[in-house]
Write a structure and sequence with these properties.
GO terms for molecular function: DNA binding; DNA-binding transcription factor activity; thiosulfate-cyanide sulfurtransferase activity. InterPro entries: ArsR-like_HTH, HTH_ArsR_DNA-bd_dom, Metal_resp_trans_reg, Rhodanese-like_dom, Rhodanese-like_dom_sf, Thiosulphate_STrfase_CS, WH-like_DNA-bd_sf, WH_DNA-bd_sf. Keywords: DNA-binding, Transcription, Transcription regulation. This is Metalloregulator ArsR/SmtB family transcription factor. The chain is α/β, with parallel strands linked by helices. The chain contains twelve helices and seven strands. It has a four-stranded parallel beta sheet with strand order 5-4-6-7. It has a three-stranded antiparallel beta sheet with strand order 1-3-2. Helix 3 crosses helix 4 and helix 5 packs across helix 6. The longest helix is centred in the first third of the chain and has 16 residues. It is globular and about 70 Å long. It starts with 5 loop residues before the first helix and ends with a helix. About 25% of the residues are buried.
């Protein structure tokens, strides 16, 4: 048995894990992987990284136990490892929001606009799901939606929203969401909807946070035609 201080040994492992999380590109990769399984090439496209750079970061995340991978044909698909991986990312965000003035300033400038109504929390969403007095809109791309979405969510990607307005209900509030609280797609969707006479708010979080807090994601496709028929 090693004579090394076991507490110090554990802390060295904890520090190595923290270092793996300590890069903006790896945090961005984890955000996308939290939406579903992706190949290196897909993740490179989604993050704007080169394939070589994305691959390097992914291998470090895998060695650190934060992501796992599997073969699918000629591709290697990456997904979050088992355990509270995304909760660790959420904890980093929470500490930064609480303690870093720079973070609070960015949030205030981009995500807390004076004319915004209060975003919808998961607690409010779960309560309202009992009555179905609203429309839940997923404005991510189709590949993300098919990997998993909130129960009952209708898929209308942001770039198709204006063309789909005629099929949306004016008599129900529309709650839009994307990849989480720092994703601007839902903010832009809400702006478009309000500008066209719809009552709309954004969901405070996204699918990854929903699953991290015990929610179950759906994978079936729900189209606007079903909404139009109601």
């Amino acid at each position: 048995m090693s004579s090394e201080n076991p507490k110090r040994l554990l802390n060295s492992h904890f520090a190595a894990l923290a270092r793996a999380l300590g890069h903006e590109h790896r945090l961005e990769l984890l955000e996308h992987i939290s939406q579903g399984e992706w190949s290196v090439e897909e993740l490179a496209t989604r993050t704007g990284l080169s394939i070589a750079n994305a691959s390097q970061h992914l291998h470090l995340l895998r060695r650190s136990g934060l992501v796992s991978s599997r073969k699918s044909g000629k591709n290697v698909l990456f997904r979050l490892a088992e355990g509270p991986v995304f909760e660790a990312v959420m904890a980093i965000r929470a500490v930064a929001e609480h303690n870093l003035a720079e973070v609070r300033s960015v949030i205030a400038d981009y995500f807390e606009r004076p004319d915004d109504m209060e975003p919808v929390s998961f607690a409010e969403l779960r309560e309202r799901m009992r009555d179905s007095d609203f429309l839940l809109l997923d404005v991510r791309d189709e590949a993300e939606y098919r990997q998993g979405h909130l129960p009952g969510a209708i898929h209308v990607p942001l770039d198709s929203l204006e063309a789909s307005l005629a099929h949306l209900p004016l008599d129900r509030e529309i709650i839009a969401y994307c990849r989480g609280r720092y994703c601007i797609l839902s903010l832009e969707a809400v702006q478009t909807l309000r500008a066209n006479g719809f009552k709309s708010r954004r969901l405070e979080e996204g699918v990854a946070e929903w699953k991290a807090t015990g929610g179950i994601a759906d994978t079936g496709m729900q189209s606007l035609s079903a909404v139009s028929a109601v």
